[in-house]
Hints:
This protein is of the alpha+beta class. 39% of the residues lie in helices and 21% in strands. The protein contains 13 helices and 14 strands. Strand 8 (143-148), helix 6 (151-164) and strand 9 form a beta-alpha-beta unit.
Amino acid sequence: MSCIRSDGRAIALVDCNNFYVSCERIFRPDLAARPVIVLSNNDGNVVARSNEVKKLGLKFGAPLHECREFIRKHGVSVFSSNYTLYGDISHRVMETLAAFSPRMEIYSIDEAFLDLGRMEHAARETYGKKIRQTVERWTGIPISVGIGPTKTLAKLANHRAKHNCPQEGVFDIGGADIDAVLEQTPVKEVWGIGPRYGALLNRMGVHTARQFRDLPDSWIRAHMTVVGLRTAWELRGISCLSIEDVASPRKGIVSSRSFGTPVESFEPLREAVASYASRAAEKLRRQHCAASFVGVFLATNPFSDEPQYSNFISYRLPLPTSSSFALIRHAAHCLERIYREGFRYKKAGVMLAEIVDGRFESAGLFESAHEITREKRLFSVIDRVNERFGARTVFCASEGIGQAWHMRRAFLSPRYTTSWNEIPVVRA
DNA sequence: TCTGGGGTCCTAGGACCC
DNA sequence: TCTGGGGTCCTAGGACCC
């Protein structure tokens, strides 16, 4: 294990508060301090809650149909998830953050680690507050900032910032009594300790982050692998997880969805799979890669009493490609081979793997290099058009135009920031 | 009626090779 | 009776994250 003592270096973890809810509120200031929730795809479960909703006790992941009464009773505003909007706001937040550190890792849609270097102790908290004010002013998104000598401690500090000092929204664990903080933190709240390990540790009588930190290495290694050991060392202030400021390309790309209504015939299923293949190909091109492995899966609804069927099949391409045409074609062949009549399908998806640098995308025996180059240029234009004028401005005919299988999004907010037709208008 | 969609890393065990 | 040992690759499964 390669770990280094962090000797005075500080890391900040910036986390957007209730990110999806905050995004919706930017354009609906009337919803500030009001209960708001955002739903998962197909309006299935609650995936984001405003503080008001959390306080009322509604759990993350609750199915919408079980919340109807709660929503009515408390006058909750409900939104379908609008990833186009969230992606765009996320981009603005990250651009703002980038000005505060030469090294930054975008960890998720709403989180980033910032390397603060050897910034003086006394200056850190002030700096954190400055980051917070700037992001809020420039993007309208409230954030919390946790500062610590390692990623895991920064994460823990962030949790603390959010819950113990929401007014300031900044907490520097380096300026606090670390032992006391770890003692007050349930071990299950430590980053890297999931429900499984949490339960195991509790059974062993380990309940706080401090108790976990002080366990013998040999026990941790034996029961929780090196991953658990790294977490413990990080809690001791020894840095084992570095800031990855260059995003490594994905090793696999999956595009899948549950359908809004079950699909019973082949044709719409083929359209859906073509759409997923096309979206996966877009993701692939965005990271300048090509794939030589395509997989397709489909499944009926496991929650229903109807006859069940699910299957997965894959195909290895002779040469890597990033062409939507080629990937759609291969995905369609896969689907033909696993499709069975007489089932009500609920979900399908496309997987790409064996991903390589796009430069290895070369012509096969029966196609010319010229053809490949032409197709690459074509898709680079299509990608630019779709980026500028909105997804699916240009798309392959095989993706279908009706899309009856499309997911349910009954409470969708407008695409305020990415569609000319849906930009908010201010009337004098 | 309704039940998300993406990812990562690590380990154990088997096959195979010399 | 004795029944190598070490290396690599692959896969399935389990844990975690947002």
